[in-house]
Amino acid sequence: MSTFPRMHVSLYVSNLAASVNFYSTFFGQPATKVKPGYAKYVLDSPSLIISFIENPERVQANFGHLGFQVETSEEMNARLEVARKLGIVSKEEIGTSCCFAVQDKFWATDPDGVQWEVYYFHEDAEFNDPHYAEQDASACCMPPVAVAEEKLKLKIAEVQAANACTPGSGCC
């Protein structure tokens, strides 16, 4: 079985040693290359080259998430069991509807907050699990734009109220 084409991802990290410890556990193998401020893993399954560059100023939060789909439900369960034993599971979702698909999945979060999803796809769905519309983006799906806009409006209103003058006080 060919491992090409192979996807490449490069992430900035705030602490290379912490990231190497996490990813060696998460991927189940040591880094292929470690240099000052740099580490790389070359994986056959999933077919991926991922590198990490230590640069705390460039770490970006809330970009979404990364993940990979496994071929069978048995493989997902086996990976979940290993991840549980290693203590890296941050969330489990079995039989969930996410991104308009029924999936079994688990999540692991790296030291900089990057979320990794490992999932088995059962079938397409005509709906998204409604609980994703009520929560912050702690897993697969982002809340609707209206929810995010409403949170922004509340924050602006709170700032305006905190800095507002009492009518007739002469501060304005």
From TrEMBL:
Positions of transmembrane segments: none
PROSITE patterns with a match to the protein in the record: VOC
InterPro entries the record matches: ArsI/CadI-like, Cadmium-induced_rsp, Glyas_Bleomycin-R_OHBP_Dase, Glyas_Fos-R_dOase_dom, VOC_core
Highest rank taxon of the organism: Bacteria
Residue stretches making up the VOC domain: 5-121
Pfam families named in the record: Glyoxalase
Gene3D superfamilies registered for this protein in UniProt: 2,3-Dihydroxybiphenyl 1,2-Dioxygenase, domain 1
PANTHER family: CADMIUM-INDUCED PROTEIN CADI (PTHR41294:SF1)
NCBIfam families xrefs: ArsI_CadI_VOC (NF041414)
Protein name per its UniProtKB record: ArsI/CadI family heavy metal resistance metalloenzyme
Organism: Aquirufa originis
Organism classification: Bacteria, Pseudomonadati, Bacteroidota, Cytophagia, Cytophagales
